[in-house]
Amino acid sequence: MVERDMSDTLIDSHRMIRFDDLERVTAAFSCDGKWIANGARVSFSPQEHVGHLYLDGNVHASTVHLVPSRQAPFTGTNWQIRLNEGGTWSLLNQGQEARMLAGSGHFVSLGKATLIDSFDTTRWLLYRDLGGFRLRPCMRDSGWLALRDGQAVLTGRDEPVTRTHYWTITPFEPVV
Amino acid sequence: MTTTAFSQTVEALAGALGLWARQTRPIAKGEMVRIQGIDLSNRIMGLDDLFFVDEPDHFRPRHGQTLRLLNQEILNTGTLRNSFFPQVLSSHGQDMNLWLKLRFRGRFQIIVYQSRLGHADMPLAERVVSSDEPATELIELGPIEALPRGARLFWVARALSDGCEVLDVTWEVPAPTATEGRMVVTMRTFGRTRDVQLLLQRFQESAHRGAHGHMLANTLFLIYDSSPDVSPATYADLADTGLNTFVLSGPNMGGGGNMSLELLALQKAVEASGITVNEVVLADDDLQISLESLSRNWGSTLFRRDNAFHTLPVFMKSEPRRLWEDGGFWGRFTKESPRGQRTGVGPRLLRHHRDFRGLDHLDDMAKLHHAEYGTFILLSMPFGRIAEIGLPIAFFLRGDDIEYSLRHAMRGGITLSNPNMAAWHEPAHSYAQEYMSIAHGIIINMAYGQDKPDELAAFFHSRALGHLSVSDVAGLTVYAEALADLVAMDRLMEPGFADHYIAMITRFKSFESAFTVIPDEVIDTMRDASQREGKLTAQARFLYMPTQPDEPPIDGVVLWNPHTERRSIYNPNDAERIAALSIVAARFFVSLSAFTQGYDDLRAHYAKRMAVTSTPAFWSEVAQSRPFAVLHG
User: Fold this and answer.
1) A79: which strand partners?
2) What is the CATH number for A134?
3) Any chain A CB within 8 A of the CB of B54?
4) Are A140 and B132 within 8 A, CB to CB?
5) pTM here?
6) What are the structural domains, with CATH classification, of chain B?
7) Which of B108, B442, B474, B556 is surrounded by the most beta carbons within 10 Å?
8) Above 70 in pLDDT, residue A8?
């Protein structure tokens, strides 16, 4: 069993992440007792800031930020997850096909499905382990989605995994 | 530049061979030898699936990329370039045990699979390995000869932690016998010095990743550069590559003749130095091949149990998924000559035009594949075979590889293709190349079984009709000259052969000035104008066009060269053109008549010339009093 402290770095005695139970999520899954299936509306929070920061898409600028609330005007915190053939996921901002979470290089944005060097920028791989959820796009050069300096970025493939790479997925409940 | 005699160049080469041999490392019996590693050479966008399996959660590294995997990421080598096809080794190598050696860091699951047509992929071995520091794991897979025929092996690695790195994965065998393991890679070039240098540079870049040390120490690259204006300064950077290289310059005797001079120099130098060379590779100057493929050739031929020629699948540079040839048959099993008798003057290219995507054709590639001939684009043979069958004959270009392979076959040899290797090369054709292909093809057929001229006469007749029907002077001239030179019996395969070819090539090259890039809309204008008048603008390939019918009458011709994308347009009814055509036609038919009437004499004559020009004595005489130089080494 790996020891885990609550600092930024999840370490074991060899200073490496070693969760043998990292599993790829390719079907409906449960999260905090709630069932999240294909088409569900969810929000994403960096695990360090659950309840305080949410992944938000700006459909006008096609940008992605982290915002402090799911209330208006932050309607872009609402993501519809879609399960694709092959077990990948697409994250449609507010259910819009043309505004999916897209990853390329170190950046995330909103956009339509785009092929770069035969890789689809809007297809994501979802994994979970004891630490929570991790996501990465199906892109050759990209690592995991992570929180860096208050921004959602894609880390390099070489970067050690820390708590900042983990996300919480919560079913979206609009707050009136 | 200071030039020397051939003998002095040989002496210098002998010295270089001796120095090289002192630093090669022999292989002891039982020593683990790398047969095949990972091919990471892909530089072409969108071609990754030929190297690694393409799935969303799979890692598909690009050229030179470090193999660092994310947790749960998969590296699957079940592809054309990274499967291991054991059939060549099991059928033509000594009995050997097969191992997979994994060098890694992190935590991995690795599974070795066997794939066969009609069967589900079967796991042969599975391990979970774990280490924070670089570590090695060996997986024994048993005797290669126990693997089923037509099987393909591959491994799949899944990262089970973050920070995983695949340092190297290699298929290895304990050497069944001791060997010096020395390989000489010969290349000859005229005008493609830069291509040769680029290839060596790419080898150097791959070598820096360290996986090919033993093979490279045991390999000498011998370059024959007959380009004008080369000097030692041209090759000054070779010293920085760390590769064992020797470059000589000499007269341009064509690709075929240059190969013979180069091999003659090598033979004499090996004899003078007293060293052993095990394998010699004949390679073109414009091929693209990875160092990994070359390394696989070394691995596949170290423990030969026969003298088979090894060739490889050749893909098109312009359409990198399209296989152009994987060996071939000459003059038979073609559309025109579908049966086993050699009556045609064209190749049957095997696996021609197959398109490779993902897992397409891999089961077929896993089967043992023998051809009648292999191309000099890359051909590997035991060095001692040269002494047994002689040198390539005096063909300037085209057909030298075909004849050499047939000669090898006549003396009990076979030609096989190694699907663990691949090369990319752009096929080309021109009037000059057609002239040489046909003249040499006829000579080959006369020597290798075609004892009557009937089908050959019919071929020439058919070609004539096609070119006459569109008043094509250039095309008809190609065949007229080929026939005339064949029946003259005083210019092909004679000591002065190179000068004759150079003159012919220059002449045929001048025909190409009639071809330019012409927009389709211009052709459409011509075509429409013809149609309005109840006539026809005939459009045809520049060679092998069909005979145009009489109706409607032709008032314009567009000839197209698909290799250059250029076209020639002309009026077929122009009086000057018809006059020129008539002269060529007259010459053509006189020669054709002489060809058919004197076929037996021609056979006897060219059989003698083949016997003479395949000898070291002939090539020594060619080399006599011609200037050579050592450019590097």
Assistant:
1) A42, A93
2) 2.80.10.50
3) yes
4) no
5) 0.93
6) 6-25+179-431 (3.90.550.60), 32-174 (2.60.120), 454-597 (no CATH)
7) B442
8) no
